[in-house]
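Narrative of accomplishments. A recurring question from our advisory board has been how the design workflow behaves on a single, concrete structure rather than in aggregate. To address it, we present the structure tokens for one chain from the evaluation set, followed by the sequence designed for it. No filtering or post-editing was applied between the two.
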């Protein structure tokens, strides 16, 4: 099944609906909430946070946040870094994560990116297998938070 999503700017009109999207309780140690993502974005303006709500029809089903076209520096990986990818607990397993990544890849490639980075907390239940299945590979780096850094060569994606 192919899902149809839209990446939508977060506004006062949809902020509550987007903040209501939550992962399963057992995933909370791996993926920060939308509310926490907004806090991180406000605390790190130098990371040039770019975020969007993910909609399927009229329903908010996820959230995505990147560092957009930044000069890498201590604590900020770039130029394009997938900072947050969140799919609501009630719609997981339907292809939304891959659909979101497909949209993100198309957008960052159109902006001139050749590589997309992300990181994840290691451990049972980590999203690392999902990212690796999509094509991300470990860089061999562990970031300052103990997360495994992964990179996606955008030339390998359609």
């Amino acid at each position: 099944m192919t899902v149809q999503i839209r990446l939508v700017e977060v506004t006062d009109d949809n902020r509550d609906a987007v903040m209501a999207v939550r992962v399963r309780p057992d995933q909370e140690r791996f993926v920060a909430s939308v509310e926490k993502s907004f806090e991180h974005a406000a605390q790190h303006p130098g990371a040039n946070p770019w975020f969007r709500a993910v909609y399927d029809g009229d329903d908010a089903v996820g959230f995505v946040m990147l560092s957009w076209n930044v000069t890498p520096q201590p604590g900020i990986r770039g130029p394009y870094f997938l900072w947050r990818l969140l799919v609501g607990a009630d719609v997981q397993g339907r292809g939304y994560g891959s659909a979101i990544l497909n949209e993100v890849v198309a957008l960052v490639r159109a902006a001139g990116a050749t590589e997309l980075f992300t990181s994840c907390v290691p451990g049972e239940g980590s999203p690392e297998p999902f990212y690796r299945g999509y094509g991300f590979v470990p860089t061999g780096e562990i970031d300052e938070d103990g997360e495994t850094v992964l990179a996606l060569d955008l030339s390998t994606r359609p």
